[in-house]
Give the backbone structure.
Amino acid sequence: MIVYGINPVLEALRTGRVRELRVTDRASGRVGETLALATERGVPVRRIPVGELARQARGGVHQGVVALVEDARACSVEDLVRGAAGPPLLVVLDGIEDPHNLGAILRTVDAAGADGVVVQSRRSAALGGAAAKASAGAVAHVRIAEVVNIARALEELKAAGVWTIGLAGDAGLTYDAVDFRLPTAIVLGAEGTGLRRLVRDRCDALAAIPMQGHVDSLNVSVAAGVTLFEAARQRRRDP
């Protein structure tokens, strides 16, 4: 996997998953920090022309550095549940196709202290450079389980004692009325279309974020942030 940008590359280096660091032959500024950490970790460094670096980053804002990163160790839904430090707090993504939204959600999952993310292996944004850049490096730390079928994954979560709460604008329950102190998976639907019917039907409950303005919905990454930090607030108040 190719990761680009200062923060994503630094976080990948800290996890020990970088196999090669590639920097522009005119590297300067904070690139030096990545070079120092690569040297400390024994990661080989290759200097290449800036045009080649831009090609490898596929036009993304690379800030003079690209890293070849090995894929994270595969984990399952069961692994996410068992690996939680307390009552599991997970996020399930039903067809998120924008890598910037995916990255923003991963960044929020990490910041809120959630235990992992479940994504579908097909028809979803790739966990590549754009998502890593948008996550500010959180993609290197968040545990991610890729599944073939989201609806089946919800059944697996329920069998493990995890409540599945889907976000839907037309729900009668508000998100802040949900007891997030319980083992919970927050289920988020695709941009524009929301939760697919089968996934929606599999959720234990649906919850809405009340809208006070003229628009009737939030960006999916913002909705994730609002809900995750409500969960974090509840757990801090009454762990």
Summary: The mean pLDDT is 89.
